[in-house]
Amino acid sequence: MKIITKYSGVSLLVILALVSLILSPIHATAADPNRPNIVVVLVDDLSTDAMKALLDGGWLPEIRTHLVDAGVDFKNSFVTNPECCPSRATLLRGQYSHNHQVLANHALNPLHGGIAWTGWMPDTDQAGHEDSTIATWLQDAGYRTGFIGKYLNGYGEQAPSTVNDPRTYVPAGWNEWNGLISQSAYSVYNYELNINGEIVHYGEDESDYQTDVLAAQASSFIESAQPEPFFLLVAPLAPHIEVVDPLAPVTGNDATGGLGLSIRPAPRHAHLIDGNFDNGEMPPLQMKPSFNENDLSDKPSCPRPLPPETPALISDPSCVAERPVLDEETNIPALEYQYKSMLASVIAVDDMVGNIVQSLDSVGKLENTVIIFTSDNGWFYGEHRLIGKELAYEESIRVPLIIRAPGGIKGGESQALVLNNDLAPTLADLAGITPPYDVDGASVMPLVDTNPVSSWHGRKRFLVERWYIPSLLKFDAPTYLALRTKTANQDYTFIATRADPDNFHEVTHREFYNLPTDPYQTQSIPLSNQINSSLENFLLLFRACRGNVCRAFESF
User: With a threshold of 0.85, does the pTM exceed it?
Assistant: First the structure.
């Protein structure tokens, strides 16, 4: 497959790019001797719709009390590549995928996870992007750093060539490391953790439930109080579905096969998905107008309708237009169970947040700690007949983001357009440091502080990018570039799909959704050739941006 990095653009846009180079990079404020502690809770595959259902139903009392009511809830929070691995790399580096170069959940070798993308991990002749992340920045600034949970896809299977056992690898910047290993990360029981270089196995006892174990480790990290400030990143699997059979994606030829997967909630919450409404039950799946969409003719098609029958290297992507109708007798009940199980698994995450707050309070650090809650991407529950993520529709790219900060706004809502690109520069800003390179995002603290020292740069649009990488996985989405724009006068998504894996520049399908009139993205609006060409050229230019040029494109 060809990964294209060169482009040709429109002269006006080139001039804009050159002019934007004179803009100063966004820098953090001067170091504060009373720097706050920082805790980030990063969940997996939590959509904003699911989050709203849980909050509205009263299922998340700890998150409601300690975060929503005590912080700022960002209502227009998005990710710029809706897949786990590239999104997590963006959190760590503050960059679009085309800059940190972790492009997908797996690398070009179909057996290697996304952590193995060339240039991410250090090697004998290069430092690697992993050697400069928010963890190393804060550690160098005197923070005690801790990681607990799921890291990048392929962690524990691939490591730098100097590491004998990949399972024992600890990335740079972390004083305390509790990383879930390999495929075991996708099981809430019978998993392995690398605890500071030692492999520890957890079994099937109730006390081994993954989210609870990670919560206890988070509390232990916090309660081992040190004079220096700390940064803790906690990343449970929940609500990501469990993958107990690693070969499942390469067996069978059923695009709805993922419906058979779910995640076990904590034992104390298992009754909430048992179908017995007398002892409580999770809320039912909300079926939008786009659910099991009748007509997909406005959506992208791919060169072939379905992947090969037998397990093999898949050389072509799977497109939305080929998705089968969800059957009311089998598929939809399975999807309903998947939905309820995923929601029920988040209740233990709510308990985790409560434990973290209690631990912070017990050591007298709660009032000097910033707590951030977010997700790496969203999830489709039958919208456009889809199950999963990866695509540039709202359900996949919108994510929850709540920030509680000392001296910050309490019980506030922000309509600003914010990205996962902004998380690393936000953490750097909190620590009073300047990133060692010009990041693509910007600190969101002006939107959180009651008395901000600087102004928000006013983002109006952003890039969503996704690459199809041939692998053993079936039903992977194709390559696309998308422009999401949201201002007082414009609210739309333009998606340029490239279904031919060997030709990045050939746009095979275009979609344009005007969100005020079509919030569920059920009918793409045809555009003139001239408008299509202008938008596509701008996307190619955007796709090559870096640092302050990206921010200029987002704001003009």
Answer: yes
